Amino acid sequence: PVLRLLEEQLQDQRKKHEAEMEALKNELDLMQVQLEKQQQAFMQTLQLSPEAQVDFVFQEEITRLTNENLDLKELLEKLEKNEKKLKKQLKIYMMKVQDFEASQPTVPAERSPHERKMQVAVQRKEKDFQGMLEYYKEDEPLLIQNLIT
Hints:
Elements: H1 2-47, H2 50-103, H3 113-125, H4 140-148
């Protein structure tokens, strides 16, 4: 059983390797064809007059820039579509948040003094204080009372 499993793995790897080799051979063939075309174009350019060579180079550059421009336009269109999609999702999520907030029970306006002190303490825990505490002399009894509670 182990030997059979290893043989199957070896065959799978061989098949993958052969497929990769075939793909690389095809890519190499395409590159050779492309190279031959470029060499022919280069040889033709050398036979042209200097003015014609400049024109040819300009035409090639215009073609390259046009293709690059088209690729960038496609990318821009994709990004714009993605932006619209994300804006729609944001609107949906904002509506869900508003609905969620509306469905939450409202906090009663009047609370006992103990609840108010608890809320203040929670708010202060979220902050990171460092150093000395500054206070007015008339607030000292209230400060001491809050420190004790």
